[in-house]
Amino acid sequence: MGENTLAISYLELYKEIKDSVDNTTKLNKAEDLSLRLYIRHKQKEYNELIKENEIQFDKITNQISTISKQRRYIIVFAILIFFLSISVVYIVYLFFQKKRTNRLLMLRNTVIENQKHEILQQKDYLSDANKELEKMSIIAEKTNNAVSIIDSEGFFVWVNNGFTKMYGYTLDEFKVSVSPNLFEASDHPHVNEKMRMCRTKKIPVKYDFLANCKNNKTIWAHTTLTPLVDLNGEVYQYIAIDTDISELKNAEEKIRNQHSEITHQANDLLHVNEELEKLSIIAQKTSNSVILIDHNGLIEWVNNSFTQIYGFSLSEVKGREYKQLVKEYFSLDIKKLVNVWFGTKIPVSFESLNNTKSKGKIWVNTSLTPILDNEGNVLKMVVIDSDITALKKAEQELKKINEDITASISYAQRIQMAFMPKVEKLHEYFAESFVYFKPRNIVSGDFYWFEHYKNKTIVVAADCTGHGVPGAFMSLIGIASLDKIVKEKNITKADLLLYQLRLSIIDALGQKGEIGEASDGMDVSVAIFDRENRTINLAGAMTTMFVFKNHKLMTIKGDRISIGYDQVEKGFNAHNLPLDKGDVVYLFTDGILDQFGGEKNEKLKLKGLKEFIGTIKEDPMKKQEIKLKNFLLSWQGKNSQLDDILFMALKY
């Protein structure tokens, strides 16, 4: 029963401690808290001692009572047996025995009185302590510092409101989201060592660590870990007080950076004179013209190259206004000079055609660099001119060559477009249809071809190897071959057409499958509409096609055989479908599929194109064409076009 009573007393005292912890200097009075526990324990012992004294007193009283009875019996017995003499002796004996007992009782009462006095003093002390603890409890709840109580095993028992404000977690949230144990929750690499030191030496320890808060914010925290010691000298709890020192850490980092920067600047200054000497040599020996202008805009100095380029010596220009020299000889926009001097105060570079002293003309690249003082005012201006006359002549020649090449390619584009059938003619057989044709570089390696032959409409979409001029040459070979296959060989089946086209390309390019031989060729989709039998015949070489039929978008995959030399020597497979009014066939090249764009800047691919067509398949053809153009423009964004693009939609 005594142990249960003591445990209850410890629990009450723990609650008082929990409600009273703060981060002020009062926390350093951990020994006071230990003393209070000791007093409470001593108070229990004194109470038990008083009870024991009362029991002993009752026993003595009972003994006295018994002795009194025995005395009467003895007196009677003595009168009867030993007569009066023996009675007198026995009375004397009882007198001394009682006197001895009274002395013992008086001594015991003195001890009890002293204990009562000591207990009353302790009661007054505990009353004052409780008042002190109430104040400390208020401080612990109102402080912004994080205060937590941790048991001897490292598990969190209690945290204050400051803990929640600082880290964003309540005690329950912290246990679930982070860890219920300090050993696991702390990011400090030596927390176990700190806890061991605190437990073994029974002294407060301090350390800094980087903490992750609930809102993904990271802060620096300073922790003071204080042990609480029981009557046996064992640590039964810890008090942790955390302070947000992020601003202090940032300030320390700034100081370190400043110290590093100052040290670096000091090292740089040691080499300034050497660098200035080197720069002086460079300024004298460089082939560029260098002009130094003071804060009034007057020329202070020019190097030898200035004299060689413009023909003016230092004595001729020194002290003159730079603006006046510009007006007479240079083609500098005065507004730029004024803007650098009084406006942006940042270096600028530009090209201009200047006059020399001998009235000759030279192209120069000029850089104006202001030198600022500590207040940001222009102290001096450095003007460096590079003679780019030869470069300008080369640019003009290259520009002329480029214009000639562009004109030639543009003419080649007209020839290529003349070979391909007019889109207007396609509308004669497919009133609702469109062709989206967008070459990457004027001429294209992609081409479309169609022909109405023997009541069948043959439509081809092809992608030749390469783009630009090489691709355009291949497209002309492909168009010529298709005309010959259909009109001269009378082939109107998609699989046979592809097979014959493959043979024609191999023959035209002289391909034999030898090592190092060019692997030129083309990827081709063929759709043949048989209006008499109301069927469609499809075949593809390294391509995929879509057919919208019965409100469903079907995928028709071609064979993995290229139009050109290939190790595979088998023929192509044809896909035959019934043809109903409203059916739509989509033919396209991989220029769309390989285009980078979108939110993730990735290729559109077949899946992305099919998903888009699925959103427009029910729309009229004109609306589909507009949506396709807008979609591709939005998808591409700021990316450059990677390949030629061809997309055909044919509604039966």
What can you tell me about this protein's structure?
The chain is an alpha+beta fold. The strands form 5 sheets. The protein has a 5-stranded antiparallel beta sheet with strand order 2-1-5-4-3, with helices on both faces.
Overall structural class, as computed from helix and strand content, comes to alpha+beta
* Count of helical stretches: 20
Beta-strand share of residues: 15-25%
Rounded to an integer, what's the Rg over CA atoms?
52 Å
Largest sheet: 5 strands, antiparallel
Number of strands: 22
What's the N-to-C terminus distance? 100 Å
Shape: elongated
Task: Describe this protein with a few key phrases.
five-stranded antiparallel sheet, alpha+beta, elongated, 652 residues
Summarize the structure.
By secondary structure, the protein is α+β, with helices and mostly antiparallel strands. α14 packs parallel to α16 and α16 (468-487) packs across α17. The model is unreliable at 21-27 (pLDDT under 50).
Set out the fold topology:
Blueprint lengths: L1 H17 L11 H52 L1 H60 L3 E6 L4 E4 L1 H7 L3 H7 L4 H4 L5 H11 L3 E8 L5 E12 L5 E10 L1 H25 L1 H14 L3 E5 L5 E4 L1 H7 L3 H4 L4 H8 L4 H10 L4 E8 L5 E12 L5 E10 L1 H31 L3 H7 L3 E6 L7 E8 L2 E9 L3 H20 L6 H16 L12 E9 L4 E7 L2 E6 L2 E6 L17 E4 L5 E5 L1 H4 L2 E2 L4 E2 L1 H12 L4 H16 L8 E7 L1
